[in-house]
Amino acid sequence: MFGRREPVPFAFLAEADRFRSNVAPPPRQRSSVSQIAGKWLLGLTIVAGLVGSLVLGMPALSTPSDTASRQSQASQGR
Fold first, then answer.
1. pLDDT by residue (tens digit) across 25-53?
2. CA angle (36, 40, 42) in 5-degree steps
3. What's the start-to-end Cα distance of the chain, in Å?
4. Which residue has the higher pLDDT, 64 or 47?
5. 17 alpha carbon, distance to own chain's centre
6. 41: burial class by Cβ within 10 Å (0-12, 13-18, 19+)?
7. Which residues fall within 8 angstroms of residue 2, CB to CB, at 6 or more apart?
């Protein structure tokens, strides 16, 4: 049912590394001024959003300095 298979020579794998195509890819299209401006505007918008969220979020991350007095008042039964 299952016969012996003929061994496959793997020389074609070694030749594939040396293979050079004579077909050149098409040249890249240069971005227009409006496309470059749009990319810069998008990048600046993302950076401004991250900085803004950091500035607005910093007060929420900081702990108030009077937490020790609140805890002491609660422990004194006030």
1. 889 899 999 999 999 999 999 999 999 99
2. 115
3. 91
4. 47
5. 31
6. exposed
7. none
**Residues 63, 65, 69, CA angle at the centre, nearest 5°?**
120
Residue environment code for 62-73, b if the CB has 16+ CB neighbours within 10 A, otherwise e: eeeeeeeeeeee
Helices (H), the chain: 11-18, 33-61, 67-75
User: What's the token pair of residue 56?
Assistant: 């607005």
Residue with tokens 């300095």: 65
Higher pLDDT, 16 or 46: 46
